[in-house]
Description:
The complex is a heterodimer. Chain A is mainly α. Chain A is 63% helix and 6% strand. A two-stranded antiparallel sheet of chain A has the order 1-2. In chain A, a hairpin with a 2-residue loop joins strand 1 and strand 2 (11-16). Chain A starts with a strand and ends with a helix. Helix content of chain B is 37%, strand content 25%. Chain B is built from four helices and eight strands. Chain B has an eight-stranded antiparallel beta sheet. At the A-B interface, helix 2, helix 3, helix 4, helix 6 and helix 7 of A face helix 1, helix 2 and helix 3 of B.
Amino acid sequence: MIAxxxxxxxxxxxxxxxxxxxxxxxxxxxxxxxxxxAARERGAFDEAxxxxxxxxxxxxxxxxxxxxxxxxxxxxxxxxxxxxxxxYSRARGxxxxxLVVCVRNEAISRLRSQGRRTRLAxxxxxxxxxxxxxxxxxxxxxxxxxxxxxxxxxxxxxPIELAYYGGKTHVEVAAELGEPLGxxxxxxxxxxxxxxxxxxxxx
Amino acid sequence: xxxxxxxxxxLFALGMLDEVSRRRIEAHVATCDACAAELGEAESxxxxxxxxxxxxxxxATFAAPAAPQPVRTKPRGRPPWFxxxxxxxxxxxxxxxxxxxxxxxxxxxxxxxxxxxxxxKQLAAGPFRTASFAAMTDGSDARVMYSPDGxxxxxxxxxxxxxxxxxxxxDGERTMLGTAQxxxxxxxxxxxxxHRMDQLALVDGPxxxxxxxxxx
Lengths: 203, 216
C-alpha cells in the first residue's frame, strides 16, 4: 500500500508502509509442510498428497482431459520430486506452487511426447466437460480467470494463451506470432505477473 | 551456469521449455537462492492460474502411493579415506622426499669425494701426462691428466659454469664416459680405465665443445 505525505511544500513523496501479512492457520500449515518437504521428513510426502492432491489432480486433468492419465501424472511427478534431493528448497517459496508447476510440466511433457496438443482455451470457452466429481463452486473461479485474461493487453494475452492453454514452447509461440524470441519472453513474464496480480496471487 | 534465469522463470513455470532447458534451470536454482526465489514467484503466479481453472473432486481411486525412497546424494565432503590419503601424501612430500633428496645429495658428494681422493692418489703416486682441450669457446680451461699406461684419466675444467660430458672419440664414433660436474668453479671427472684413449672430447648437449689429443 502506498500513501503520500508532504515532505516539503508542493512536493509529495510516496511513503511505502509495510503491513504485517495476515497469517492464517492454513498458511502456517503450508509453511510447516514446505519446511518438512524440503527436509524430506517422514510423512511430508503423504501430507502433500493429502493437502494438495485435489489441486494437483485438477491441474493435471485440465491439461490431459483424462482421469486415469491425470492420476498417473500426479503420481509420477511427485515421485520424481521426492526422489530428487535438490528439487525443492525453501528458497523456492511455496511447496504448493512448486508441486503445481511440477505436475503441470509433467502433463505438458506427456502431451508433447504423444504429439498431442490441447486447447484448453476452447474448453474454458465451452461449458465444463463431463466429470462426475466436478466441484461446481470453482466455476466462479474459471470466470474470474477468463475476465483477468481479457484484461491483459493483446500483445501479452496472446503469447500466454498460446503457452498456457496451447502447451506451446516459447519458440513455437514466437514463430506463430512472428515476434522476436526476447520480446515474447518479456511479454509473457510481464503478462503473467499482471494476471496473477489480478487473480490475487496466493503463496 | 553463471547467468541468472530472468524471464526464463516465467517460461519454466508455464511449461514452455524443453527438457534440457528445464534441467539447466533446475541445476542453477539449486545453487542460486535469488533465482530460486524468482522461479518461486513465477510458480506462484502459474499456481494461481491453475487454481482458477475448474477444480475436481478426487476420484475414489486416487490415493497417495508409498513414498519413494529419496535418492541419497553422496556427501559433499571428502570421502572417508581422503584424510588418510592426504596424511600419507604429506608424509611423503614433507618427510620422505626431503630425506631422499638429502640422501641423494650426500651420496653424490660422497662419490665425488671418493673419486677426487682416488685421483689425488694417482697424481701423487707417479708420473702422468697432461693434454689440453683445444677450442674451449667459453673461456674455461680444460685439461686431462692421465697415466702413461692408460689405467686412469682425470679431466679437469677450471672456470666451469655447467656440467660437461666427457667422450672417447675413436673410429668415427663417440663413447660417452661420464659427466664432469662443477663444484665451485672446477669440474672434475676421474676415469679409471684399462686401455689407452687417444682422443677425448668435452660434449655439451649434442655439441662437441673441445677436443684433446693424448700422446703416450
